Amino acid sequence: MLYYNIWDLVLRSSVQGKILGGRWVIREKSPLELKARWAARGYGEVSDNIYASVLPAITLRILLVYAAANRLDIRHIDVVAAFLYSKLDTEVFMEQPHGMEVPGNMVCRLKKAIYGLCCHC
């Protein structure tokens, strides 16, 4: 299988915790090119470590006003990719990708983080 470095297949009966769902996320890069990725439905996770590190709107407005008043340059970086394919601290299980299922009532045990998981799973 294509993703053996990201997950292993294990029997569903051996899983003690919750099994996350997943879905294909498809984006059109050009009229003739599509990009597809399998993403976890991480909103179904139950963990003490889940948080959303999102900047509140009022904080962003204050920073923008401060920068404008002091003629400062503003730059933006996206750090989400830093957590993609990082090693996981705990075991996370999810359903097999639709269309790529291996028969035998198997689920994926993730070895590395994928899109849709929280940062500290």
Give the helix tally.
1
Strand content: 25-35%
Q: Total strand count, please? A: 6
Helix content percent band: 10-25%
As a whole number of angstroms, the C-alpha radius of gyration is 19 Å
* Terminal-residue CA separation: 24 Å
Which segments are poorly predicted (pLDDT under 50) over 5 or more consecutive residues?
A: 48-52
Shape: elongated
- How do the strands line up in the largest sheet? 1-6-5-2
Element-level helix/strand string: EEEEHEE
In terms of structural class, how would the helical and strand content be classed?
A: mainly beta
Could you characterize the architecture of this molecule?
There is one protein chain. The protein is mainly beta. It is built from one helix and six strands, in the order ββββαββ. It has a domain at 7-47 and 80-112. Helix content is 11%, strand content 32%. The strands form two sheets. A four-stranded mixed sheet has the order 1-6-5-2, with no helix packed on it. The longest helix is centred in the middle third of the chain and has 13 residues, at 57-69. It is elongated. Residues 48-52 have low confidence and may be disordered.
Q: Summary?
A:
With 121 residues, the protein is mainly beta.
List the SSEs and their pairings:
Elements: E1 7-11, E2 19-20, E3 22-30, E4 33-40, H1 57-69, E5 87-94, E6 106-112
What keyword list fits this structure?
two-stranded antiparallel ribbon; mainly beta; 4-stranded mixed sheet; 121 residues; 1 helix; 11% helix
